[in-house]
Specification:
Elements lengths: L2 H12 L9 H9 L2 E5 L4 E3 L7 E7 L2 E5 L7 E6 L4 E2 L13 E4 L3 E7 H10 L1 H13 L6 H4 L1 H20 L3
Antiparallel strand pairs: 1-8, 2-7, 3-6, 3-8, 4-5, 4-7
Helix pairs in contact: 1-2, 3-4
Amino acid sequence: MEIEEVIKIAGVLKNIAVFEYLTPEELEQVINKAELVWFKKGKVILEQGKTCRTFHLIIKGKVSVWVYRKFCSKVLIAYLGKDEYFGEMSLVFDDAITNTILAEEDIEAFKLTRRNLKLLYAENPVIQQKMEKVKAEWSPENDVLTVSNDLKTVYQKCWLWHRFKLFIGLS
């Protein structure tokens, strides 16, 4: 990776909670453990309910973020593009992911796996301590997609539509 790309990626990473406590040198070490990946339009990159162990920073292209719910087949939550990211909490938590990420365009992304991050921890335990600090401070209330009022409204409308269809005998 060229130095300009490293500097740009480090600038974006610094503004992501998972990496906020890292120094520029530590961010460079993180970047060196990552790789560039490409996905074709239409590819499901991450699937809701599955365990995720990767973080992606979009360099080119656009993805859509979907949530599958009981009363609606799927709900579009957001579109993400250049310099936006997904999977960051998968670097510190083992939970199943809460949404599906679909490539809306061909994607080029910076990918960091938890496995490579753990290799970095062995080389630099200070990075692990800083990442654990983020984990200790995190709460669901800080997760924008978890508490989005727009999302709650969508869920309520889906539930009401489902109840209405049951009432008039369409389901």
